Amino acid sequence: MGYLAIFFGFSCAVIWGAADFSGGMAVKRTNPYGAVIAAHGISLVLLLILAVIMREPLPPASDLLWGCVAGVGGGMGLTLLYRALAFGQMGIASPVSALIAAGLPVLVGTFSEGFPGILIWIGFALALVAVWLVSGGVGVKLEVDKLLLPLLSGVGFAAFLIFLDRGSGQSILWPLIATRVSSISSLLIFSTVTRQSWIPTRDSWVAIILSSILDSSGNALYALSAQLGRMDVAAVLASLYPGSTVLLAWFILKERITPLQMIGIVIALAAIVLITI
Asked: pTM for this one?
């Protein structure tokens, strides 16, 4: 895997972490469905303008369909993560989600691109330990309900990473546009059927716009990284995003994390790095 692909993967992680922090701040002021739908709507407009300016040719219909499938997973994953970030600690929800988002593409890559090495399996073992520690560790009652949203969001993100890689073989922007169309449509249908409010409040728009720009940039960087190298490695590199989320939560929100949970977060990030090697 080339250095440029690795650079794009790490850059995606930094930007995605900042996007998640902004999205979590938005959801503290509004509902998660509205935050994601609005953010993806802004992103759709920006991507369409960029695609026209750059005159990127339309890819095959199959690539657009893969993008649509990725968008459904990404939209639901982001909604669930924003909900977890708003009602739980940012430093806990983000790493748990990232572990799942990193692990599943590696399993898919095992079948499509070869069996992973021993370090990857060590990474998986550390990942299980990390999930236990961030949930409380020894002598602490495991609050499974607080882990459920991050776990499910990780599954959604994994689907996004896997299927976007399938759709971005020939172009970058149009598959991303397809993800936005499907995520907006699926979330609108879901929120309407379940009678969930999706109109953002006025004081949440600054955070929503910021998260939209950052998330779109991160998506493009991931697609470039996966296009230049292995999908599973790009996915794991991108899944380092909790690092910047935790850092921002610590600096801006002064969020307190217990020493045991901090150890779990460090082990979680170490596990992701081992999976990458």
From this structure: 0.82
The pLDDT tens digits for 109-155 are 777 766 667 887 787 778 767 766 765 554 444 455 567 888 899 99
Distance CA(200)–CA(69), nearest Å, equals: 25
Residues contacting residue 126 through CB under 8 Å, at least 6 positions apart? 267, 268, 270, 271, 274
Tell me which residue has tokens 């021993």: 118
Looking at this protein, which amino acid is placed at residue 230?
R
pLDDT digits 0-9 by tens, 234-264? 887 788 787 787 778 888 887 777 787 788 7
From residue 48, give the alpha-carbon distance in Å to each of 45, 76, 173, 178, 224: 5, 22, 8, 10, 18
Query: Where exactly are the structural domains of the chain?
Result: 3-117+145-257
